[in-house]
Amino acid sequence: MAARGAGAGTTAGTAAAGGPATSFQRKAAAGGSRLSALPGTRPSARHGQLLLSSGLPSLDAVLGGGLAVGTLLLIEEDKYAVYSNLLFKYFLAEGVVCGHDLFVASAMEPPDNILKKLPAPLLDDAHRNELREEATPAKSEDSQDSMKIAWRYENLPKMEASPTTSTKFGHYYDISKTMSPELLQSIKRHSFYLPEELSLEPKLKTWNMNCGYASLLHSIQRVICQEGFDGSHPQKKQKNILRIGIQSMGSLLWGDDICSSDTPEDIHSLTKFLYVLRGLLRKSLSACIITVPSHLIQNKAIMERVTNLSDMVVGLESFIGSERETNPLYKDYHGLLHVHQIPRLNSLICDVSDTKDLAFRLKRKQFTIERLHLPPDLSDTVSRSSKQDLAESAKLLSSGCGAMAIGKKHLDF
Amino acid sequence: MLGELNELLGASPQRPGTGKFTLLRDTRTDGSFLVHHFLSFYLKAGCKVCFVALLQSFSHYNIVAQKLGVSLTAARERGQLVFLEGLKSCLDLLFGEKEPSGDPSPLQFLSGSTSNLKALFDFVRTSLTPAEGDSWQGPVLLVDDLSVLLSLGASPVAVLDFIHYCRVVVCSQLQGNIVVLVHSGEDGADEENELLGTALGHHSDLILWAEGLATGFCKDIHGEIKIIKRLSLQSTEQDVVQVYQYKIQEKNVTFFARGLSAAVL
């Protein structure tokens, strides 16, 4: 399970983080201890930056502990943007639960609608009821008695096998329920809805960049300056983090044609935008998530440049509509997750996870990212048929020729 | 600086060399450890360094340089290091008020008013021209990531012109060195980038090409580096090519011959 096994590491980290916690902070307030008291963050043991949770503890583990403050997470959308929208919502929901400020930008739907559909966090009392239902009586008895057989392990700390909200970093969410409006009222949110913004302001032609991107940059910069995220109001008592979420950058709705034509008119708008955005992120206490429909971008050079200019790049490949949906090898999963880039912050090395085969699945209430495990081969001809035969017969099965598929398997005697 | 790399290159901080153009290339991997190495190497050698850092912030380079034994803040204070932080100065250009002093920003080409990189070249020239009372060894220009200039709208020809002008001033006139990094992605689909890399490769005295392993990710071997020394640009002698594999650690990078990684032996 996605247990917070790094619990020991966290306590050691917070104990040792007396010194400067963020090195990205230009006008750092005196006393790193005040910075580490920011809600919903913890310092990283690797590079000393503050880490934020992305809302999905299994994704945090893949990203090396979380999203560092001042960095950009780029998500390459899956085919119908089903799962990337989920990750987007998880990120924003985590911001609400931790009390961070939110900035939501979209060209597709009004940001208020997005915020109304965030998943509800799994809180203590609701979860304890569930635990009581699921736990067998035998289990609870064992945990109370002293261990008779495994007595050497008695004094070891118990691993958190199930989620609790006693951890301040990383929460679990229930997708089947939406977040209550009371929780949303408690945080400060800013929104940018492209059709509204373009009608309000005249088109500013900045840097030969797309107008939508230019006005979004100005809007973000305004929020960062006025709310003091870049340390420009030292008298503000409580510092906070700004979480920025931008949906579907590069799509036609933003006025950019890199997704819709082979030879786009202006291939530099998106990259210029990302460059300036990263500059803004680096000098303020904020983090940003952007989803890009990269499967629509024909010009591969653009995605290379976009990857080079982002900090973390994660690609989602869902099985919807592809032949893998019915392939028995992948029957437990809904898609694959590719980690294209992890940044090396303040160091020559980075925390790259060893497993490169990651897959995700959407259970009834939760979305998890796991190591891809092939299911055991339990067919009749397990010794003789290879995986390739199985996949072939699966293809035939899916196209409706059931009898023929069985015949192929039992051809040899 | 990375001691093992110095041994492989036959370089030492006592003799930093003059008039050399070094090209760093990386494909399918992150070659920034080479940039950190050359930065700390030339600072230790006592050269005056102009660092055009387009990709990361000052504090990132500072922290890594401290691990390699050099302090960038101290170097900047005593005038040995001139640091252009691309991320910060593009913000000043976009959001700042018009400067009354009339000094154009080095990244002027971003605003689209000019298509060449003359402002950047002027910045480099003024920072590396020796002033009165300077006792540094020799000027060095270090550019972290020319590919970023392409992403920001400069044409490959403009970037090549910029490098050419810099070579004339820094390498020929001032007898200094230049080190630039060109980063390629997974597939090499960026044609302008490949063009830039190949064109610069023809003019370089030394090429360090870091590549990810062709067979994929490995925990113990982070990549392969090809060192191409051009003996002479005039004669037709073959270049000396050496290939090593490397593993990056916290404060050091170890190099070993192919197939002789510590994990395998």
TrEMBL record, chain A:
Residues 1-20 are annotated as: Disordered. Pfam families: PAXNEB. Belongs to the ELP4 family. The keyword tRNA processing applies. GO terms for cellular component: cytoplasm; elongator holoenzyme complex; transcription elongation factor complex. This is Elongator complex protein 4. The keyword Hydrolase does not apply. InterPro entries: Elongator_complex_protein_4, P-loop_NTPase. The lineage of its organism: Eukaryota, Metazoa, Chordata, Craniata, Vertebrata. Residues 11-20 have a biased composition (Low complexity). Keywords: Cytoplasm, Nucleus, tRNA processing. Its main location: cytoplasm. Pathway: tRNA modification; 5-methoxycarbonylmethyl-2-thiouridine-tRNA biosynthesis.
TrEMBL record, chain B:
The keyword Phosphoprotein does not apply. The gene is ELP6. Belongs to the ELP6 family. This is Elongator complex protein 6. It is found in: Cytoplasm; Nucleus. Pathway: tRNA modification; 5-methoxycarbonylmethyl-2-thiouridine-tRNA biosynthesis. One of its GO terms (biological process) is tRNA wobble uridine modification. Coiled coil: none annotated. Its main location: cytoplasm. Keywords: Cytoplasm, Nucleus, tRNA processing. Gene3D superfamilies: P-loop containing nucleotide triphosphate hydrolases. It comes from Aythya fuligula.
